[in-house]
Amino acid sequence: MTAKTYILPVRQPTRMARWGRRLAGLALMLILVSAVAHRYQFLATPDLLRVLAVDVVLAVLALVLAGVAFARFWNDGDPVGRDILVAVLLALIALSPAIYAVTLAAMRPMLNDIATDTADPPQLRLAAQNRTPDMNPVVPISAANAALQAQAYPSILGRRYALEFDQARSAVNEAIKSAGWTAQPAYDTGAGEVTIEATARTPLWGFPYDVAVRITDEGGTVFIDMRSASRYGRHDLGDNAARIISFYQLLDEKARERL
Question: N or C end of the chain: which has fewer CB within 10 A?
Fold first, then answer.
């Protein structure tokens, strides 16, 4: 009796595992290329956000495919283990920025405009003129947001320095330069008061923020207020508060050099 020969079809889980690996690799490549392109301003921020949304979809789909392949062949000898492992690792790396952002969003209040004086914040006059309709408008800080800021960031307050007005202005300009921001021409906002605006970008992704530093002459001392506002998004993930704190640290150093 002649034994029958059966030709087994290509197993679906094998294809799913390989497609999971490919999609995860594509997601990781996409996020790396888009990050570099946006950091060097070849890609606009709204376009980057769309790319990141696509990246999340690809990475999640890769995890789903890898998970299905793993579940179906837990006890099978099909050689898909390596593809599954690679798919999961690449997908998790590609998802890490989104996971990090979601974690920060859960820990910090939904704010995108932080000022040391929420009742009378430094003006963002140039930013208001230059922002496009797809950006956050420059508006007064609401009482509700001021209360959220006071609760979350009680140390975000203006500072007084024992400097002459010209010394303080020079120290602020040096601190802006040390922070790597792009300063705009200063403008007078009242008697003995000047505001300096600047554009700041996050170190890795290059997300743009508008900053205003207001210097008020008190005769022998100066009082310096700050404001940092996101151009995009309802949630700054705590970045504006961190920017103000780090800037005052730089300014403290510049002020000590003048004492």
Answer: N
pLDDT, tens only, 179-216: 999 999 899 887 889 999 999 999 889 999 999 999 99
Q: Does residue 214 or residue 18 have the better pLDDT?
A: 214
Checking DSSP bridges between strand 222-230 and strand 159-161, what pairing results, if any?
A: antiparallel
Domain segments of the chain as ranges: 12-107, 113-256
Contact assessment for residue 83 and residue 18, using Cβ atoms and an 8 Å cutoff: yes
Distance in angstroms (rounded) separating the CA atoms of residues 156 and 153: 6
What sign does the CA torsion over 56, 62, 64, 67 have?
negative
Residue with tokens 């996971």: 99
**Cα–Cα dist 40/245, whole Å:** 26
Quick one: which of 87, 90, 80 has its CA closest to 28?
90
Query: 50-62, pLDDT tens digit by residue?
Result: 999 999 999 999 9
Which residues are within 8 A (CB) of 140 and not within 5 positions of it... i.e. 6 or more apart? 121
CA distance 160 to 193: 14
The answer regarding whether domain 113-256 maps to CATH 3.40.50.720 reads no
